[in-house]
Design a protein that fits this description.
This protein is an alpha/beta fold. It has one domain: P-loop containing nucleotide triphosphate hydrolases (Rossmann fold, 3-Layer(aba) Sandwich), CATH 3.40.50. Helix content is about 35%, strand content about 25%. The protein has a 5-stranded parallel β-sheet, sandwiched between helices. Strands 2-1-4 form a 3-stranded antiparallel β-sheet, covered by helices on one side. The longest helix is centred in the C-terminal third of the chain and has 16 residues. The model has no long low-confidence stretch (mean pLDDT about 95).
């Protein structure tokens, strides 16, 4: 299990455009970090770089307690993007089972996630029939079904109503209290105490 995250002197380019450079920060167990900045500043690109999906132009990403960075990424983090990544023609049950089992969840994890995100009555519906908030709850369910230490979330609360923002906030608080970490790209404040890191200032 990873025990921390360190981003050191990071620079990211997209094509010919330099999004940011000389970015350094760290996060420890139990800590939430909110990535803030204007649209296009590089918040999403930073999440993808931490997840290993984008190669930085300079700098390093390290995970505390990990002997192999690729193994740590494969086994100990979740990335949920701004787009939910769900197939509209499949049922919510099929999508939850696929995403959660891919991350190592068993039947107990699936049941726990469905209960925590109140998905029971939605599971037999096709994803395309769900509202934006319901789809976001379905995407977030893998966090509960297959617990991992580091959550990388891109605008996790954007389509949720006030009730579900509060409930997701409680899930995040429980995750942090158990020693987890959160790195989230946001425009709205997170519903938990978080340290802000400005991107592209």
């Amino acid at each position: 299990m990873i025990s921390g995250l360190a981003v050191e002197d990071l620079a990211i380019r997209r094509g010919e455009r330099l999004l940011f450079e000389h970015l350094s920060f760290a996060a420890e167990a139990g800590e939430a970090v909110a990535l803030v900045g204007r649209n296009g500043a590089g918040k999403t690109s930073l999440l993808r770089a931490v997840a290993g999906l984008l190669r930085p132009a300079a700098g390093t990403v390290r995970f505390g307690g990990a002997r192999d960075i690729d193994e740590a990424r494969a086994a100990d983090l979740h990335l949920i993007g701004h787009h939910d990544g769900l197939k509209g023609g499949r049922t919510a049950r099929e999508e939850l089972a696929f995403a959660a089992r891919w991350c190592g969840a068993g039947d107990a994890g699936l049941a726990r996630a469905a209960e925590a995100l109140d998905l029971g009555r939605l599971l037999d519906l096709e994803v395309r029939k769900l509202s934006a908030g319901q789809r976001r709850r379905l995407a977030l369910a893998r966090l509960v079904a297959a617990p991992r230490t580091l959550w990388l979330l891109d605008e996790p609360l954007a389509p949720l109503d006030s009730v579900w923002r509060e409930r997701i906030g409680a899930l995040i608080a429980d995750h942090l209290a158990a020693g987890g970490m959160l790195l989230a790209a946001v425009h709205d404040p997170l519903p938990v105490a978080a340290r802000a890191v400005e991107i592209g200032a």
